[in-house]
Design a protein that fits this description.
heterodimer; A: alpha/beta; ABC transporter transmembrane region fold; Rossmann fold; 6-stranded mixed sheet; 4-stranded antiparallel sheet; disordered N terminus; B: alpha/beta; 2 domains; 12 strands
């Protein structure tokens, strides 16, 4: 399910589109599930009729022999019922998990899309969309099956009732209509309370997860008891909301059960009068009562399907909101130029929230360093270079081409902007630094880290490494991709000065003259190996020179040498 | 990717898990008994319905007077109303009891989860724990909410209906029991065959969420290094694997229900045959035979529900075992010692290794006088952060001893120790909620004034005052995003509120950039004033401001002394110092 990087985005604009996307590949099996469950339900509706007919025809006569043919019929119905009812499980599961998987994959594809998101969204949100909401959308299969089968069974049972006796049919139908209209009225307060309850439960769960994620901070301070206290407050709020919702539920359950009971009584009373008048046999009365009893089932299945559909829609809408998040930048659809793009990088008169007319020029094979004192300006510059956001005004030029005219995949292959504190993944060493890693490992001083990772077979999300080890391995990984232009953000901030100096030398030996490198850093050891250093203050370049030349500059000394 | 461990925390046995459940339910026994009684009333009320219907059939069959119908109809009305009313009350009572027990369970689990020995978490990461306190708590809650009332209702209905059948004629009860072996056969499938399948399913889902956490959390790195296809492939594979195990479970368990259908069919057939025979021999009336058939048909739902519940019970048990697993990790309860006289730290002969890894510290001796600021410097991987964690009591040394004011820290409860020797890690986490709620985690009874004073000391007062809602501004996940410098300042403010005797700081300059690092350095100096402190120094300016410097190299102390003295000498610190100066 890998789309080419340039394929048009799946046009998703609403919950409906997400549902269509989910069921693109499993429409048939979803429909088959609904069909099988329907057949199952219809068979269930016929069993009271068969029992009633058997009572009439054989039991009333006290004829054991006569009962056998009805039992044979019942056996036939049961065979079909069992086959369809149980077969629907596996078929439905296939459909539901397929839909879930496809939605999940769409969410992950959107999050990883190189065009980025115009508004940043928290990872937790994407995570819950890709897990619980995706699974909720998959449950649409079951909602569909329950709604369709409820309707089918309702229709068949009603027809059967009318065939038994028109009067019974009318009585039953009126009662069912009553249920259909009364239930939603009753359900309204229930829905409100359960919405409140769900929110409270989600809040409490959110606090629990947050506390566990911050457990190191809590245990560093010995603050676990306070944390549990705070969670207890949330948990008790959630409990009270749940009890309130439970009160509404219990009233709802009680009333619906009474209504169902009166439906039965009405049919029984009307049927008995008909039997006394000789218009109905006792067996037909039993069949009628059985059908009336059965009717409550489909009605509640339909109600359940309604509630399920609402949940599916809500999840689909949340997913649609993520999928519809506008892209941060466009991906020019033009083909990449055939000839190789020169490895130069130029920033012309870049203006933004924190940048004020910044100019930079990096020639092929150069190793330059940029010192940006202001954190916000630094991340703005890096975001624009990485095309994580468009340049508000001014231009980034890569090898004579404006960066925003180069297809993103080509651009990122050509200019890699490596984030500070990059994530490490659970993977074998070869996936991190390639099969021939000795040169990059040496340059990043990461041989010992590699040894440790190799000994364990794979990285566990980088958790088993210290901050400095993670940073050196991340640097080695970036160097291993060997892009024509490499932009590094404070790549040695967690390293001691001696290691830092070796990394600086290694980096220079590996790349200078051969590849183009931009270091955004304020570390003196790194600055010392740069061909040129550009000092950016108040959003513009205020001084350019080698580290030694600039050391005399007061502004530079204040930032770097303090 | 073969050695990705998702289940690093222990999983309890089913018996232990039930024991934990029983523990939270036990205090609710009186209320639970009341709920059960009301439920019995509900079911008994329902039992009056089939015989009353049978009476109606008999009356109609005899062609008797219409007035005779009044009595059974009144019974039906009364039974229906009683069933509805008692059902409502019973349901509510069960919700109330259940929710109380559930709340105790989840609070107990979280409390335990947060107090787990850190070493346990370092190994497995927090992913597994997060999924336990969220997903598994959800599964158990759903099962208890839906399952327990249904289980009680179904169980009672089945038993009491058999009683009802026997009341009509004992032979009807026997006929009904013919279906029992089939039901037991179905139950066996769910209890014996299904559980390992569910365990596999859960494991595969765990691996899938682990992969999602990595991929979605690492989106920026993935985009920068063009790792998108690889990660889409990995998520795809993990998700397809989880799907395959789900399907395997569905394929196997679906057919267990056929056994129920077989039981229903054979039971109904037997009741009909028995009815025909009994009516033929005038042992029962047609109405009684009808009532028997109706009784038996009314059993379909509760029996189906019972077997379905077995299914749910299995899946809930899997989750409950994971929760009980957390509760069964022994927390080291330590005796507690009298308040140490003075905040002097002494380490002697400290050795440490993680699990079966190589030894990281090879016998470290170190003494910190009250009020002294000691900086730890050394190459990346020298063991600085590990030593800091040992001092803060996060890990226990494999050999050697750490004492605070003369008492061995192993004799102090961890939480108390962390209050006296607090650690601020490089890893910052801003807790979701208001800023005040975050800070009060460090001291729950702090007044707003205390909070402001702490923020002042941490250098955060200026920006907090500018926040539209001040201390009530929502921060953390879902709230206002703080810059790395601000997040560190919040961490320092928590330290001030916690007010420990000894502060252990892993200097976090990595994220802050140079200007931020300098700002934090000032804040740190202010916060540490008057405290004993151990600093893991990444910037030599921090080391230079300390009273004493300890140089760590490959897990050994290779040099120590006042920074100025060491810098002037020819040792490893002087080398670091020169490397740092020469770049300047």
């Amino acid at each position: 399910m890998l789309h080419a990087a340039y394929s048009a985005p799946v046009p998703v604009d609403s919950a409906g589109t997400v549902v269509r996307l989910a069921f693109r590949r499993c429409r048939t099996s979803a429909l088959l599930t609904a069909l099988m469950v329907s057949v199952h339900q219809v068979c269930e509706a016929t069993t009271p009729v068969i029992v009633g007919l058997a009572l009439d025809d054989a039991v009333a006569e006290g004829s054991v022999a006569g009962a056998w043919k009805w039992i044979a019929l019942l056996g036939g119905v049961y065979a079909v019922l069992s086959l369809c009812g149980n077969g629907a499980g596996p078929v439905g599961y296939r459909a539901a998990t397929r839909a879930e998987h496809d939605v999940r994959q769409a969410v992950v594809e959107r999050v990883l899309d190189p065009r980025g998101m115009a508004q940043e969204r928290p990872t937790g949100e994407a995570l819950s969309l890709a897990s619980s909401d995706a699974s909720e959308v998959g449950n649409g299969v079951h909602a569909l099956a329950s709604g369709v089968s409820g309707l089918a069974a309702l229709a068949v049972a009603t027809v059967a009732l009318f065939l038994t006796s028109v009067t019974l049919g009318v009585v039953a139908l009126v009662s069912v209509l009553l249920v259909v209209f009364v239930a939603p009225l009753l359900a309204r307060p229930l829905q409100q309370r359960s919405a409140v309850q769900q929110e409270a439960a989600a809040d409490a769960a959110g606090v629990a997860v947050d506390m566990v994620e911050g457990v190191r901070v809590l245990s560093g301070l010995g603050a676990q008891r306070n944390a549990v206290g705070r969670y207890r407050e949330m948990s008790q709020l959630s409990r009270r909301a749940r009890v309130r919702a439970g009160a509404a539920e219990s009233v709802f359950e009680g009333v619906t059960s009474v209504i169902g009971g009166f439906l039965l009584i009405a049919v029984a009373a009307a049927g008995a009068l008909l039997v006394i008048d000789g218009d109905l046999t006792p067996g037909q009365l039993v069949a009628g009562v059985g059908l009336a009893q059965f009717l409550v089932g489909p009605v509640s299945r339909i109600a359940y399907a309604g509630a399920q559909v609402a949940t599916v829609r809500a999840s689909a809408r949340r997913i649609a909101t993520l999928l519809d998040t506008p892209y941060a930048v466009d991906d020019p659809a033009v083909l990449a130029p055939v000839e190789p793009i020169p490895a130069t990088l130029e920033v012309r008169n870049l203006d933004g929230t924190h940048l004020r007319g910044l100019d930079l020029e990096v020639r092929e094979g150069e190793l330059i360093a940029v010192v940006v004192d202001d954190l916000a300006a630094r991340s703005e510059l890096l975001d624009v270079l990485a095309r994580r956001r468009p340049a508000p005004s001014g231009a980034v030029v890569v090898g004579r081409l404006p960066a925003d005219a180069i297809p993103l995949e080509t651009l990122h292959r050509h200019v890699a902007v490596v984030p500070h504190n990059g994530s490490l993944f659970t993977e074998p060493l070869a996936d991190v630094v390639g099969d021939e890693p000795s040169a990059v490992l040496a340059a990043a001083q990461a041989e010992d880290v590699a040894e440790q990772v190799r000994a364990h077979g794979s990285l566990h999300h980088g958790r088993n490494l210290s901050g400095g080890q993670r940073q050196r391995l991340s640097l080695a990984r970036a160097l291993a991709t060997d892009p024509p232009v490499l932009v590094l953000d404070e790549p040695t901030s967690a390293l001691d000065t001696v290691t830092e100096a070796s990394v600086a030398t290694g980096l220079r030996e590996l790349r200078a003259g051969r590849r183009t490198t931009v270091l955004v850093t304020s570390s003196a050891s790194m600055l010392a190996v740069a061909d040129r250093v550009v000092l950016v203050q108040d959003g513009r370049a205020v001084a350019v020179g080698t580290h030694t030349e600039l050391a005399a500059d007061e502004r530079y000394a204040a930032v770097v040498l303090a | 990717m073969s050695d990705v461990r998702t289940d690093t925390l222990p999983v309890a046995t089913p018996k232990e898990a039930r024991g934990e459940l029983w523990k939270v339910l036990r205090p609710e026994r009186p209320a639970a008994l009341l709920a059960l009684t009301v439920l019995v009333v509900t079911v008994v009320a329902g039992l009056f319905i089939p015989p009353a219907l049978g009476r109606i059939v008999d009356i109609a069959d005899r062609g008797a007077d219409r007035g005779d119908l009044v009595a059974p109809l009144l019974v039906l009305v009364a039974a229906t109303l009683a069933q509805g009313l008692a059902g409502s009350v019973g349901w509510f009572l069960i919700v109330r009891v259940g929710e109380k027990a559930l709340a105790s369970l989840r609070e107990l689990v979280l409390g335990h989860a947060l107090s787990l020995p850190q070493a346990q978490l370092e190994r497995g990461g927090t992913g597994d724990l997060v999924s336990r306190v969220s997903n598994d708590v959800d599964t158990v809650s759903d099962a208890l909410r839906q399952g327990v009332p249904e289980l009680l209702w179904s169980g009672l209905t089945v038993v009491l209906t058999l009683v009802g059948l026997a009341a009509l004629d004992w032979r009807f009860a026997l006929a009904g029991l013919v279906s029992l072996p089939f039901y037991l056969w179905a139950a066996r499938g769910y209890t014996v065959v299904a559980p390992p399948l569910y365990a596999d399913e859960r494991r595969a889902e765990g691996a899938r969420s682990q992969q999602l956490v990595e991929t979605l959390g690492g989106a920026r790195t993935i985009q920068a290094l063009m790792l998108r296809p690889r990660h889409l492939r990995r998520v795809d594979a993990a998700s397809e694997a989880a799907r395959a195990t789900s399907i395997r479970t569905a394929d196997t368990t679906a057919w267990f229900f056929s056994r129920i259908h077989l039981g229903e069919f054979i039971g109904t057939a037997t009741v009909l045959i028995a009815g025909a025979w009994l009516v033929g021999h005038d042992y029962v009336t047609l109405g009684q035979a009808t009532a028997a058939a109706l009784y038996f048909i009314r059993l379909y739902d509760p029996v189906g529900a019972l077997v379905n519940l077995l299914d749910e019970v299995q899946s809930a048990t899997a989750s409950l075992r994971r929760l009980a697993g957390i509760l069964h990790v022994p927390l080291d309860r330590r005796p507690g010692v009298p308040q140490p006289a003075e905040p002097a730290l002494a380490l002697s002969g400290i050795r440490f290794r993680y699990d079966d890894g190589p030894e990281i510290l090879h016998g470290v001796d170190l003494a910190i006088r009250p009020g002294e600021h000691v900086a730890l410097v050394g190459a990346s991987g020298a063991g600085k952060t590990t030593l800091a964690a040992l001092v803060a009591g996060i890990h226990d040394p494999r050999a050697g001893a750490i004492s605070l004011g003369g008492s061995d820290v192993r004799d102090m409860p961890r939480e108390e120790l962390s209050g006296r020797v607090s650690l601020v890690t490089q890893e910052v986490h801003v807790f979701s909620g208001t800023l005040a709620q975050d800070l009060r985690l460090a001291r729950h009874d702090a007044t707003d004034q205390d909070l402001h004073a702490a923020l002042d000391a941490a250098g955060a007062r200026a920006w907090v005052d500018l926040l539209p809602e001040g201390l009530d501004t929502r921060v953390g996940a879902g709230g206002r995003a703080l810059t790395p410098v601000q997040a560190q300042q919040v961490a320092l403010a928590r330290l001030v509120l916690r007010d420990p005797d000894v502060a252990v700081l892993d200097e976090a300059t990595a994220e802050a950039g140079s200007a931020g690092a300098r700002e934090l350095e000032t804040c740190m100096a202010r916060v540490l004033e008057g405290r004993t402190a151990l600093l893991v120094a990444h910037r030599l300016t921090t080391a230079a401001a300390a009273d004493r410097v300890i140089v760590l190299d490959h897990g050994r102390v290779v040099e120590e002394g006042p920074p100025a003295e060491l810098a002037a000498g020819a040792g490893p610190y002087a080398e670091l110092w020169r490397a740092w100066r020469s770049a300047r």
